[in-house]
Amino acid sequence: MAACVGLIAVVSWALLSPMPFAAVGDTPLSALSTVSDLLLHCGAYGLLSFVCSLAVADRQNDGARRVLLALLIAHGVVSELLQTLIPYRSCDPFDFLANMTGIAMGTVAVTWEIPFFRYAKIAMIPNHATDPTSVER
């Protein structure tokens, strides 16, 4: 859950900063300034949705997933509207659509449990029957 909160902070800062690429200067992150704005929005919200969905994926309560989805959608809408108040930024309906596309992609990746992620979960669970280091005492 800490990764989710940290990522929300980073995405919020990037969306609400007047000139986010000025802050990264000549670091490797400056290469992102050449990427399409729509891809950045879609990628940011896709990663955000994916990481936060993983945080609640193992819970039996579907309500937590619904609340998360509603909060991510609200964040996407509010961040676009707040950009009208920030110098050098503007509210763009295409950015909003890119945000929603990213949220959908991240949520689907976790919900459908793409085989890679399913096998990664299995690989992280120790096999007590064959693992000599997992002997219970």
Provide a short characterization of the protein structure.
The protein is mainly α and 137 residues long. It is built from 6 helices and no strands.
Quaternary state of the chains = single chain
How is the biggest beta sheet arranged?
none
What structural class should be given to the helix and strand makeup? mainly alpha
Query: Helix share of residues?
Result: 55-70%
Please give the count of helices.
6
In percent, how much strand structure appears in the residues? under 5%
- Element order: H for helix, E for strand: HHHHHH
**How many β strands by DSSP?**
0
- Please state the overall shape, judged from the principal axes of the Cα atoms: globular
Rg on CA atoms, Å: 18 Å
**Kindly state the mean pLDDT as a whole number?**
83
Domain module count = 1
Low-confidence stretches: none
Q: Give the terminus-to-terminus CA distance.
A: 31 Å
Description:
The protein is mainly alpha-helical and 137 residues long. The chain has one domain (2-23, 34-126). It is built from six helices and no strands. Helix 3 runs parallel beside helix 5. It is globular. It starts with a helix and ends in a 13-residue tail after the last helix.
